[in-house]
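Working notes for the structural subgroup meeting. M.R. asked for a predicted model of this chain before we commit to crystallization trials. I am recording the input and output together here so anyone reviewing the notebook later can reproduce the run.

Input as submitted:
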Amino acid sequence: MVIYLILIALLGSAAGLEAEKVGIVHMHGFWQAYDEQHHLDFKNFVEEKTGVKVHLIDAFNDLAMPPAESSITPLNVQVPAILKMVKNIAAQYDKIIAVGFSQGGVIWRAMIESWDDHNVDTFISLASPQHGVSDIPPKYIEAVPEGLLPSTLQNYNNGIIEVLKPLFYLSQVQSVFAPSNYFLEPRLRHLYLRTDFFPRLNNEKGDKDKISRQKKNFKSLRKLVLIGGPDDETVVPWQSEIFGFRTADKKIVPMKKTEFYKKNLFGLKTLDKRGAITKCIKAGLKHNDFPNSMEVLHDCVLPAIRDALLAL
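Returned structure, recorded in C-alpha cell form:
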C-alpha cells in the first residue's frame, strides 16, 4: 500500500512538472481590460482543467484619451511594450501558448513575427480579425476621440460609413485609434498601403530582411488555432477570424484564395501545408461570448493546450 501511494505521488509530480514547462499568455482585446470576468473565467477554467498557468496581460486596458495608454493606443506602440512584458513571462517556461482575443490576436501575431527565436509553441487566435476588418461597428465609432471625426458619425448608418471610410486611413486617426490600424477596405487598397502597421505586419511592404525575418518567425509556430463564428457582430467580415476576407464587390474569399495565402506573404500557406492550422468555427456566439464559452473552451481551447503538452 505504501509503495502504491508513493507511485501515485510520483506520477502526480511528473504531471505537474510537465505543466510547468508550458505557460499560457493571454492578451485582451479593444475596449477591454485584462481582469474582465470573461477573461477571468477563461483563466480559472483552463488552470483547473489543465494545471497550466494562465497569465493575463495587464497592459493597455480599457479606453482613455491620449496620451494615456489604453486599448485605443496605436498598435505600433502597444506591440513592443507588451512584447517586453511577454518575454519576461516566457523566460519562465520551455514553451508558451499564446492566446489573443479580438485585437489581442492581432497584437499577438505582431509580437510573434517580430520576436526572433521565440518559444511560442501554439498560437490560439480567439475571435480575432487576422485579415483585418472592412467595416467599423457603431461602438468603435463612438470610441473615436471627440473632434477627430465628423459629428455625423454619431448617427451611424452604412451610407455615412461608406463615405467616411477613407478617414480611417488618415495619419491623424491611425495615430490615436488602434482599430484603424487593421482596417482593410478592399476598394481603398491604395490608401491602406500607405499606412504603416497592417501592411508591414502582412509583409505587403517593408525591407527584404525584415520581411524574411517576420516570415521565419511566424513559420516557426508548431500550431495555429483559429477560432471564430458567423454570428460575431464585431469582426466584419467574420471570416477574417479564420484568415478569410471579402473582395471589393463584397464576395467572401476563403483563406486559400486570399493574397496572404496564395503569395505566402508571412508563412500562412507554409503552416497550412504542414498541417499546422486548426480552424474551430462556432455559431450562435456574439463577439464577447468567445473567451468564456464552454463550447469554445471544451472543443477548441482544451484540445490545443493538451496537444501542446503532448508535444513536449
